[in-house]
Amino acid sequence: MGKKILLEHINVPGIETYEVFRKMGGYASVEKALKTKTPLEVVEEVKKSGLRGRGGAGFPTGLKWSFIDKKSGNPRHLVCNADESEPGTFKDRYLMEKIPHLLIEGMITSSFALEAHLSYIYIRGEYMWVFRILEKAIKEAYANGWLGKNILGTGYDLDVHVTCGAGAYICGEETALIESLEGKRGNPRIKPPFPAVVGVYGNPTVVNNVETIMDVPWIVNNGGEEFAKFGIGKSTGTKLISASGNIRKPGVYEIELSIPVEEFVMSDEYCGGMQTDRPLKACVPGGSSVPILPANLLFKTAKGETRLMTYESMSDGGFASGSMIGSGGFIVYDDRACVVRNTWNFARFYHHESCGQCSPCREGTGWMEKILWRLEHGFGNMEDIDLLWDIQRKIEGNTICPLGDAAAWPVAAAIRHFRDEFEFHVKFPEKIKDRKHFEKEPWEQVKHLLNKEAVLV
Amino acid sequence: MGLAEVTKEEVKFSDKLLARIAELKSHFPAGKHKSALLTVLHEVQDQHNNWLSVPVMDKVAEVLNVLPIEVYEVVTFYTMYNQQPVGKYMFEFCRTSCCCLRGAEDIMEYTCNKLGVEEGQVTPDGMFSVKGTECLGACGYAPMLQLGDYYHEFLTPEKMDKLIDDCRAGNVKFYSEVN
Question: What pLDDT is recorded for position B8?
Fold first, then answer.
């Protein structure tokens, strides 16, 4: 069994309640931090741990905290990003549902480190029952003296509240989240200024993912150096992976950031191998935005080295032959899946979720969806593939927020690794009429038709 | 539904709802009460047949002391706010990639056929509507749907039959209670 930091007590009956959580040592980090450490010491501890943002970007958390503006003297805020909406990702929901008090504990300890006195948890509107769970947990924390005025007699005051979104993926982007928290449309802001200087209500703000904040209590209790002992290199600690798709045991797994990808997919401790006897075709290892990897590049890098579940190894080879660990949304495809259909599905998602602020994204996502629809439905032509490539290239890097990149990357990777499948859709429209076209005749069995045609031409 | 003909003055918020709105406003600093808007709209929608008519939005603006346009622009941005009447039981199926790998399209088709509607439609008796939505964050428990505040996961045709029967019998909880 690999090391468990977040899920260590997940199977303790009643761990979702305040009483059991407390009995298992919950809220100890609040006592330790408030009574024995200065805020700066907590920041240092987190820096030492090497903890990186678990929402997807992987930016070092301690460093992010150290950017918070202190000169202005304005009130500071910590905002927990619980807007989890990256397709393939469902770990934060699991954590909040099963062990809500750990998030409240992390909020208090982290707010103390930032010297914030008013902090928020912003949760996606669809998780309404989880919103209620968090509201209850916050009330219990107030009732037991962990929140409010003069916490533990240390003179530290903190209010934490939960607020919600209403079905907009874009609000997972931190500046859009801030806009939404202020009761507005979720249009991302231009950076700079960064939230660390101008955030919620114009005040210095840090936005952190649920999992990131929940890692903080362990780091404070055990020390940053202990945390850094798990994992490899700059990928320290553990990470939750949301595994879905054609595997035997979909679910949320905590891994050390060091295990081989093959072990994660095939071992019974994690995914348990493939769902049926159909072979692995591809994998999106870090949520829908990251490049799809064909089976031959998943367990081994292009150099033939074992690919590991780490930030570095997952991106080995750059976008040419690697991907990203991202949010840990690990989607596995067997040979029944159609890459063109999947890419169209993702493109529809990004078109639907584009906020409409920047024209390359607003127009480009819709255009890509239309082209992918016609390719998938047998109405495409060869130029469409190059057109798609051209559009995605013109979106990437040309928008205020990374949603444009997130929409472009899956399209680029699909064409890069599976171009022949796109060509097959153009040349054999009758073969792809049924939406389950590769279920009856898997790609491996029909792809020879492309070569045969090439010879005839 | 008929609510569309009602004027703002005729829209009444219950004392319980008004108290809840006041509580939500208190979570934000003085003068920043607009921050409560998204949560308030959820609570108001729950109390108004799961949709927000213009008079209801105007009432929210009045209670929250913001301009009506500030409410409209939020309601039109976020997909969870319904601007038109929906079925009493709205089945919102996740149809993003991960769910599709586990048969989301099949179960949605099955439900549409069973209820005699197409995606996006309401049954003539106003009981059910079927909607396709983007990723709901339940990829490992697919196929799934959202009904009110709750998720129904690992769906099968049999489970769907039972859910529909339970809805018809009024045995399905779809709004969570405020603590």
Answer: 86
Which tens digits make up the pLDDT trace of A58-106? Answer: 999 999 999 999 999 999 999 999 999 999 999 999 999 999 999 999 9
Phi and psi at residue A321, in whole multiples of 5°? -140, 10
**pTM confidence score:** 0.96
Q: Which domains does chain A have, with CATH numbers?
A: 18-229 (3.40.50.11540), 232-334 (3.10.20.600), 339-456 (1.20.1440.230)
CB A31 within 8 A of CB A50: no
Residues A181/B35, Cβ–Cβ less than 8 Å: yes
∠ CA A103-A162-A104, rounded to 5°: 20
- The H or E element containing residue A157 is strand A156-164
From the number of C-beta atoms within 10 Å of its C-beta (0-12, 13-18, 19+), residue A18 rates as buried
Class of the CATH-defined domain B89-168: alpha beta
Q: Does B38 reach chain A within 8 Å, measured CB to CB?
A: yes
CB-CB under 8 Å, B81 with A245: no
Match 């690999």 to its residue by tokens.
A2
Please spell the DSSP secondary structure of A106-150, one letter per residue. HHHHHHHHHT-SEEEEEE-TT-HHHHHHHHHHHHHHHHTTSSEEE
Contact yes or no for A164 and B176 at CB 8 A: no
Residues in CB range of B163: below 8 A, 6 or more apart: B147, B152, B172
Residue B81 pairs in a beta bridge with: none
The count of residues in chain B is 179
Tens of pLDDT, residues B157-170 = 999 999 999 999 99
What integer pLDDT is reported at residue A456 of this predicted model?
A: 54
Taking an 8 Å cut-off on Cβ atoms, the answer to whether B135 and A183 are in contact is no
In this complex, which of B39, B96, B149 lies closest to A345 when CB atoms are compared?
B96
**How are beta strands A205-209 and A77-82 bridged, if at all?**
parallel
CA distance B76 to chain A (A): 9
For chain B, where do the domains classified as CATH 3.40.30.10 start and end?
89-168
CB-based contact B139 A89, cutoff 8 Å: yes
